[in-house]
Amino acid sequence: MLVVADSSPLNVLVRIGHVEILPRLFGVVCIPAEVQGELTDPRAPTEVREFLRSLPNWLQIHSLQTIERIPPLGPGEQAAISLAVQLKAAALLIDERDGRKAAAARGLTIIGTLGVLEQAAGVGLIDLPTAIERLRATDFRLDHALIDAALRRVRGEG
Is residue 158 part of a domain? Predict the structure, then answer.
C-alpha cells in the first residue's frame, strides 16, 4: 500500500518515537519535496531534521510538475494533496482541518496522526495510552473527545 504524508504526522511520529510504525502499516510512504523542505527547515525539531538526513528507504521524496493551488492551504499541504491525487494513493496522512476538508473533497482517504496510532495499536505495534501520553507532551493539539473514542475502540468498547 502506498500512502502520501503531509509534514505534521511525520513530525509528530518522529518526536514521540513511533515513526517506525509507518512502513509496518503502509509499506511505502511518499512525501513531496515541499514537505521534505518543511521537515528539514532549521525551525523544525532537531530529531525531525536528523531523521530526514538519514532517509529510510520506505520514505520516498517526489518532485511534482504541477501542484494544485488550494487556498488557504500552505505549500506543503497543497503539494501533499496534489501528490496523493497524482499517485492515486491509498490514503493521505494529514492533520490540518482545512487540508483534510480539501483532501476529502478530492475523494482521498484521510488518516490523521491519531488514526495512525490507533491502527498501530489495533495490530499490536504500540500501546495507545502510552503513545497518547507522549503526544500530550508535544505541542500537537488534541481533541479529547477523539482521544477518548480512539481509546474505547482499541479496548473494544465501540
Answer: no
Domain limits for position 6? 2-112
What's residue 156's pLDDT? Answer: 84
The total of other beta-carbon atoms located within 10 Å of residue 10's CB is: 24
Task: Give backbone dihedrals phi and psi of 124, rounded to 5 degrees, phi first.
Answer: 80, 15
CATH of the domain at 77: 3.40.50.1010
**Which comes out higher in pLDDT, residue 155 or 92?**
92
Residue 59 belongs to a domain: yes
Domain count, the chain: 1
Whether the predicted model's global pTM rises above the 0.85 cut: yes
What's the whole-number mean pLDDT along residues 115-129? 96
What are the backbone angles phi and psi of residue 13, rounded to the nearest 5°?
-65, -35
pLDDT at 151: 87
Instruction: Using the Cα atoms of residue 126, residue 103, residue 15 and residue 138 in order, give the sign of their dihedral.
Output: negative
Neighbour order of strands in the sheet with 110-111? 59-62, 28-32, 2-5, 91-93, 110-111
